[in-house]
Design a protein that fits this description.
Elements lengths: L13 H48 L5 H5 L2 H6 L2 E5 L9 E2 L4 H13 L3 E6 L4 E8 L2 E8 L9 H40 L12 H47 L6 H23 L7 E3 L1 H14 L4 E7 L4 E3 L1 H18 L3 E7 L3 E8 L9 H4 L21 H11 L2 E7 L6 E8 L1
Parallel strand pairs: 2-3, 7-9
Antiparallel strand pairs: 1-5, 3-4, 4-5, 6-8, 9-10, 10-12, 11-12
Subcellular location: Cell inner membrane
GO molecular function, one term: ATP binding
EC number: 2.7.13.3
Length: about 425
């Protein structure tokens, strides 16, 4: 609960989270080992070496020799300490070290503790240490090799740790990628199937991933079998219903009764309602997905509707490219939206927007619209919103929006209803992810 602010900064993909899980322990281990090593090993070794050199410096300082004598003495040669007299003004006012020199902190602290009379300490580089003293009005400098007070190449262990950590991370990444690849393939197959595409997939990977893959394959096979059975049933029902309706129409056409025209109108209405029921039951499984230019496709649909007497026009389009669509299903969805628009309004406008991530098909009208709290209900099958949409303007069973929504969902998209800014009526958007 207290770490919710971190959520926007965390990776969202499975690969990103796996890499974070892999790198976080490695980086933490490096930091902990580095800190402990510097504090325990470097500091301890540096302290011991500095103490040894400080005793040698004390021996020379207490030998009673002058500066010139100490500079040429055998003791200085044996101890490898250079003694040089300098002007008192050349003595630094304070200790000097480079800001990133960690061991210099320990060296400076130990010399100041063990040599109370030292005036200043300078560690300008990795090669020399300089101690400054002022005695009896004389200033002199003692210098010796830096390696006598600091471990040589202290960075080697850290470099080795870093190099081998990177190597282990790379090896772990390739192994982890092989473990995550079956999950990614399963995700792509499930996403494609949700959009109406059937991509080849074979269960692989760890036992748990393989079990999930086999469960997906079984589920996909059952769904495809049910769709196939429903398609066959609908084909039979459609054929069996059209035959008696056709006989009724032929029989009514030969009647000379005054009300035969009304009976024929009822038969035509019954035929249209049956077609709507069959279209809803058929869903979005008409045809196979194919690459479609949405601009040309929507222009064709609008032209067909206009020739049928609908007051509709294709007003604008943005973006170019092709989208995988079931043409018959999308044609039915857009035609239903246009039919609803011109039924409850005077005219309709169709527009399209295509981006790298989605396709949006918009149908707007100048009718009464649908209240915001009733739009979700309007997309359910057999919904009839008498208050929002005047049912006297046209008959129906409330399947137009439901069919459009079902087709949008079958393409991995959605149907959204709103208020038209341009015409003031209903705005229906079919949004399909690419």
């Amino acid at each position: 609960m207290t770490f919710r602010w971190l959520k926007p900064y965390m990776p969202r993909s499975l690969y990103g989270r796996a890499i974070l899980i892999l790198l976080l322990p490695v980086v933490t281990l490096l930091l902990v080992v580095s800190v402990i090593f510097i504090q325990r090993h470097f500091e301890g070794v540096t302290r011991q070496m500095t103490q040894a050199v400080s005793r040698e410096v004390q021996v020379m300082a207490q030998s009673g020799m002058t500066v010139d004598e100490a500079a040429t003495s055998d003791m200085a040669r044996v101890l490898e300490i250079t003694v040089e007299q300098i002007p008192e003004n050349d003595v630094p006012k304070q200790d000097f070290r480079r800001w990133y020199d960690v061991t210099a902190i320990v060296v400076t602290r130990e010399f100041n503790r063990l040599l109370p009379d030292v005036a200043a300490i300078s560690l300008p580089d990795d090669y020399v240490v300089k101690l400054y003293f002022v005695r009896d009005g004389e200033a002199f400098e003692l210098s010796f090799d830096r390696r006598r007070v600091s471990p040589s190449n202290p960075h080697q262990l850290l470099v080795n740790m870093l190099v081998f950590s990177i190597l282990v991370t790379i090896v772990s990444y390739f192994y982890l990628r092989n473990q995550l690849r079956p999950i990614t393939r399963l995700s792509r197959a499930a996403e494609a199937f949700g959009r109406g595409h059937n991509v080849p997939y074979r269960a692989a990977g760890a036992i748990e991933v393989r079990a999930a893959g086999n469960a997906f394959l079984n589920m996909r096979a059952r769904i495809e079998r049910q769709i196939e059975q429903r398609t066959m049933m609908l084909s039979g029902v459609s054929h069996d219903l059209r035959t008696p309706i056709t006989r009724l129409k032929l029989g009514l056409s030969m009647l000379e009764a005054e009300d035969s025209e009304l009976l024929q109108r009822d038969v035509l209405e019954m035929e249209r309602l049956i077609e709507e029921f069959l279209a809803f039951a058929r869903g979005a499984q008409e045809g196979v997905p194919e690459a479609v230019d949405p601009t040309e496709f929507l222009s064709e649909i609008v032209e067909d509707s206009a020739r049928a007497g609908d007051k509709v026009k294709f007003v604008s389009h943005a973006g170019e490219g092709q989208v995988m669509l079931r043409k018959n299903a999308i044609r039915r969805a857009v035609s239903n939206l246009i039919g609803n628009a011109v039924r409850y309004g005077n005219h309709a406008e169709v527009s399209m927007k295509l981006t790298e991530r989605m396709l949006r098909i918009r149908v707007e009208d100048d009718g009464p619209g649908i209240p915001a709290d009733s739009r979700e209900q309007a997309m359910k099958p057999f919904a009839r919103l008498d208050v929002a949409r005047n049912q006297d303007l046209g008959s129906g069973v409330g399947l137009g929006l439901a069919i459009a929504a079902d087709i949008a969902h079958a393409h991995g998209g959605t149907l959204r209803l709103g208020e038209s800014d341009a015409l003031g009526g209903l705005r229906a958007d079919i949004i399909i992810a690419r």
